[in-house]
Specification:
Layout lengths: L5 H4 L8 H7 L3 H13 L7 H8 L5 H12 L8 H20 L5 H13 L8 H13 L3 H9 L4 H12 L3 H11 L6 H13 L3 H13 L7 H13 L3 H13 L7 H14 L2 H17 L7 H12 L1 H8 L1
Helix pairs in contact: 2-3, 3-4, 3-5, 4-5, 5-6, 6-7, 7-8, 8-9, 9-10, 10-11, 11-12, 12-13, 13-14, 14-15, 15-16, 16-18, 16-19, 18-19
Length: 321
């Protein structure tokens, strides 16, 4: 069976750094900072599980806010909305003091904006108040605030805010800004530099876009081998779109020998990894495959045996449902 793995074709950069080493040694301030970085995707790719892991090891109000956010997220199974609201309410007053006294802490200001935007911890929702807080934080240099403001705008200021957020290494902003820059050949080089940095920080979206650039020769010399490596890295980081792409390439032998079982493994992995919003599309893809290529369905059992060794039958059955 042909199995393309990022670990086999290209090393994935380690995210173990001085901050993580300090946190692992018991530095609670480092734990809190890591929770923020992983939740907001600053200087490292967003990771809900790691954000919660480090937030639970810090008593800082901002870390407790992140913990509440994690516990309320429906993608964290099972979500704990009551516990999340209790934590958010407990962290509210300390964060208000930190955000509003003196010069105001930028991260606390952004967190407070989230309280007003979503009505957390008993706060009455107010989009105007949330926007004012974000504008205040962005004006003082907060990359996270600039990114959130950019998402809600379509005017010329949106790109300027994405530039600010990218300079502060908000990973999602780097990828979004790169998408815009790739539309113009004159700025493709800048886009590639943003994607390469975001890829170094562990972004699956950046790796997938880099794969597309190397596949098409956008901004770089066309390199199908490098394209496949980047797509595999994106898949290993959890990108469902990359898994579907590898399913198609493996099934039809694009850049590698055709392998039906290997292709179905990628399809089943996409099914297991997809969110509720994405899963219906993956299921539709599987149904269409069965309808158009019925002989392929005979190999699903072989592919399921492979994937079950990684995920376990219980998770695979849950995804299938």
């Amino acid at each position: 069976m042909v199995w393309v793995s990022a670990q086999e074709v290209a090393p994935v950069p380690s995210q173990s750094d001085a901050l993580e080493r300090a946190a692992a040694a018991g530095d609670t301030a480092a734990c809190g900072r890591l929770a923020v970085q992983y939740w907001w995707g600053i200087a490292r790719a967003p990771n809900r599980e790691r954000a919660l892991f480090w937030a639970e090891r810090s008593s800082d109000p901002l870390a407790q806010f992140i913990r509440a956010e994690c516990l309320a997220d429906w993608r964290m199974l099972p979500p704990q909305p009551r516990r999340a609201d209790s934590l958010a309410a407990a962290a509210l007053l300390p964060l208000q003091r930190r955000a509003l006294e003196g010069d105001g802490d930028l991260d606390a200001t952004v967190a407070l904006a989230e309280y007003y935007r979503r009505g957390l911890g008993g706060v009455v929702p107010s989009e105007d108040t949330a926007t004012a807080l974000l504008e205040r934080a962005a004006a003082r240099g907060s990359p996270r605030a600039a990114f959130l403001l950019a998402l809600g705008r379509t005017d010329s200021t949106a790109q300027a805010m994405l530039e600010q957020a990218s300079a502060g290494e908000v990973v999602a902003a780097m990828v979004l800004r790169a998408r815009h820059l790739l539309a113009d050949t004159a700025t493709a080089g800048r886009a590639l530099r943003l994607l390469e940095r975001a890829d170094q920080l562990g972004s699956p979206d950046a790796a997938l876009l880099l794969g597309g650039c190397y596949d098409s020769g956008t901004g770089v010399v066309r390199n199908p081998v490098r394209a496949l490596q980047s797509i595999a890295i994106a898949a290993d980081r959890g990108s469902v779109a990359a898994m579907v792409e590898l399913w198609y390439r493996t099934l039809h032998g694009i850049g590698m020998p055709s392998d039906t079982v290997g292709a179905l493994v990628w399809l089943l992995r996409a099914l297991a990894e997809s969110s509720r919003n994405d899963r219906s599309a993956v299921v539709d893809l599987a149904v269409a495959l069965c309808d158009t290529l019925p002989m392929v369905t005979r190999r699903f059992g072989d592919a399921a045996a492979v994937i079950a060794r990684w995920y376990g039958l219980e998770r695979l059955d849950s995804a299938a449902r």
